[in-house]
Design brief:
Chain A is mainly alpha-helical. Helices cover 76% and strands 0% of the residues of chain A. In chain A, α6 runs antiparallel to α7. The chains are: A mainly alpha, B mainly alpha.
Chain lengths: 278, 44
């Protein structure tokens, strides 16, 4: 396991270096914003990675809350229904015409199937306290990536918009998302009640509902924040999209590596806590 | 040229945040290993 970790760490480092080269050298210079637009290759992948981590936290929290309880069966069937309905409904003409401009039925179907697939995969690989450890791991690493989004965003906004911050939908909802998960971590850190994991899981389930609100805010509201570059009526130079996806892959690998380390740390911490005093 | 300082600031800030977090994990890991040793358990 240790060897696999080291190999993956080396691969991730190489990928990050390559992604940095692509972002700073290879990617074409944006016409309006100039070179400062290259912040995009760190800002957007960090946001997507944070959303993904909070989604994993959501799944782990639901699994933890319902494990060994009658509600687990109901939740399983709900997830199966989401997968099936989500995969078929977007292709029905009456539903297809309701989708926002730029949202493709295949994207909706893929997302629904991925949600269901990940739910059952995580349920298969983790159980009991391992689910709780996964939840705290993904929440913590998600907060790190969300912090990067909230730092790089204003740094990019200052030269482009002339302001560091504005209280528009997307920015405000992202800040709320960050605050929710920071409060989750504060609860885990300072509460020593036996019910802490359950309370935290309940908080996480509702907190995760902010993720789709953040994502879709620029689709449904007029905001200061730019429109989506993938779907949603937006467009992106194919060369820029290529660099964006390379950076996302690199940051996803980094997130996985950090989560792997944090998960091991969490297990070690629990071992120390549960060890009998000599 | 002026906007380049914002680009570098954003990239440096990103890696600084990652470095601070990884550094805190390394410290926690070292502390826990020390506690494990004191408890008389070795790392497997």
């Amino acid at each position: 396991m240790k060897r696999a970790f080291h190999i993956f760490a080396v691969v991730t480092a190489v990928l990050l270096a390559y992604a940095l080269y692509q972002a700073l050298v290879v990617a074409p210079t944006e016409q309006t914003m100039g070179d400062v637009q290259r912040i995009f290759y760190y800002h957007v992948p960090s946001a997507w990675t944070a959303f993904l981590l909070f989604f994993f936290n959501f799944i782990a929290s639901i699994q933890y809350l319902t494990e060994g309880k009658p509600a687990r069966r109901a939740v399983n069937w709900i997830v199966i229904a989401i997968g099936i309905v989500g995969a078929i409904a977007p292709f029905i003409p009456q539903v297809k015409q309701q989708l926002p401009v730029g949202m493709y039925p295949s994207s909706v179907a893929t997302t629904a199937l991925a949600i269901a697939g990940l739910y059952f995969l995580i349920g298969k690989l983790f159980s009991g306290q391992a689910l709780d450890a996964l939840a705290v791991t993904t929440a913590e690493v998600g907060v790190v990536f969300c912090t990067i989004v909230l730092v790089t965003g204003p740094i990019w906004a200052r030269p482009v918009w002339g302001i560091w911050w504005t209280w528009d939908m997307r920015l405000t909802l992202t800040l709320v998302l960050w605050l929710i998960y920071v409060s989750y971590l504060v609860l885990r850190r300072f509460s020593d009640s036996g019910q802490t994991p359950v309370l935290a899981a309940a908080l996480a389930v509702f907190g995760a509902l902010d993720v789709p609100l953040v994502y879709f805010s620029i689709w449904f509201f007029r905001t200061q924040h730019p429109q989506p570059v993938i779907g949603g009526g937006g467009s992106i130079d194919p060369r820029m999209l290529h660099v964006l996806l390379i950076n996302w892959l690199a940051f996803s690998c980094l997130a996985f590596l950090i989560c792997w380390s944090r998960y091991r740390l969490e297990h070690l911490r629990r071992e120390v806590e549960e060890a009998p005093l000599c | 040229m002026n906007s380049l300082k914002y680009l570098y600031a954003a990239y440096i800030a990103t890696w600084l945040i990652h470095a601070v977090y990884l550094g805190s994990m390394v410290r926690s890991y070292a502390r826990l290993r020390q506690q494990m040793k004191e408890l008389g358990k070795g790392e497997k």
